[in-house]
Design brief:
Elements: H1 8-19, E1 22-23, E2 36-37, H2 45-50, H3 53-63, H4 74-88, E3 92-93, H5 101-116, H6 120-137, E4 142-143, H7 144-154, H8 159-168, H9 175-178, E5 192-199, E6 202-210, H10 215-222, E7 234-238, E8 242-246
Parallel strand pairs: 3-4, 5-8
Antiparallel strand pairs: 1-2, 5-6, 7-8
């Protein structure tokens, strides 16, 4: 897919013109992230030129700090992420194949958990790690359906870049109008979660299972690693979160 050269200055100028001097970004529950303002007194002219508003927005989500430090390399790392997200668009191609759906399903499950528990730092870590791995894994083709879900997640912390990429890849309307993705949009068979297995309060190992896996199904899987799974006095099971086996001493 033809993608122009990454230039955050022209991209952000375009989207501030279209969306106004303050870009309000929201998560799936409608809660406000750190809105992006052209009049932010902490964003100097040098920061605007060298990194851009989206980079600083993502930096703030990652660090939890409004003030910006250039010396520790975090801003450079965030900028690399945005460039990789942009680079991934170069190999995006249409089609309804299921390639990448397992990974995006697991990402969606992770970031929804992060937002439910107010872990904005982890939200950004999961996004960055996902894009890093996608760039390493996919060299010739990246599915459009998967990429569009990724852009809707990224729009909460990098609204201008996500908006531009949404438009470049043929998305209709604004990426914000699509709303935050949810699990119902992902093929159920691809959604998995990692469940810690506790024995008397200590995590012994973890298993990856389909989202919504029942206690009975989970115990059957665990028996491969723990044949005595049915012999414990009590089992505490929290769906999609944890299973704990307790044996009275």
């Amino acid at each position: 897919m033809p993608v122009p050269r990454y230039n955050h200055t022209s991209i952000e100028r375009k989207w501030f013109r279209r969306l106004g001097p303050v870009i309000k970004v929201r998560d799936y529950a409608g809660e406000s992230f750190s809105d992006i303002s052209q009049d932010d007194p902490l964003i100097t002219e040098n920061l605007r030129w060298d990194y851009g508003y989206d980079c600083i927005s993502l930096y703030r989500a990652f660090t939890g700090h409004e003030n910006i430090c250039e010396e520790d390399g975090t801003l450079e790392g965030v900028l690399r992420f945005l460039r990789r997200l942009w680079k991934l668009a170069e190999i995006v191609s249409p089609g309804e194949d299921d390639q990448g759906m397992t990974e995006i399903s697991n990402l969606l499950n992770s970031v929804l958990f992060d937002l439910d528990h107010g872990r904005l730092h982890q939200y950004t870590v999961h996004l960055m790690s996902f894009v890093d791995e996608a760039v390493r894994q996919y060299k010739d083709h990246y599915p459009l359906r998967t990429y569009r879900i990724l852009l809707r997640l990224a729009a909460s912390v990098a609204p201008c870049i996500a908006s531009e990429l949404w438009e470049i890849t043929g998305g209709e309307g604004l990426v914000f109008e699509e709303g935050f993705p949810d699990r119902s949009e992902v093929i159920e068979e691809f959604v998995t979660v990692e469940i810690p297995v506790q024995i008397n309060g200590r995590v012994r190992f973890r298993v990856r299972v389909p989202f919504g896996c029942s206690e009975k199904e989970l115990i059957e899987m665990i028996r491969r690693e723990l044949p005595e799974a049915n012999a414990f006095d009590r089992v505490v099971f929290v769906p999609n979160r944890i299973i704990s086996f307790v044996k009275q001493v």
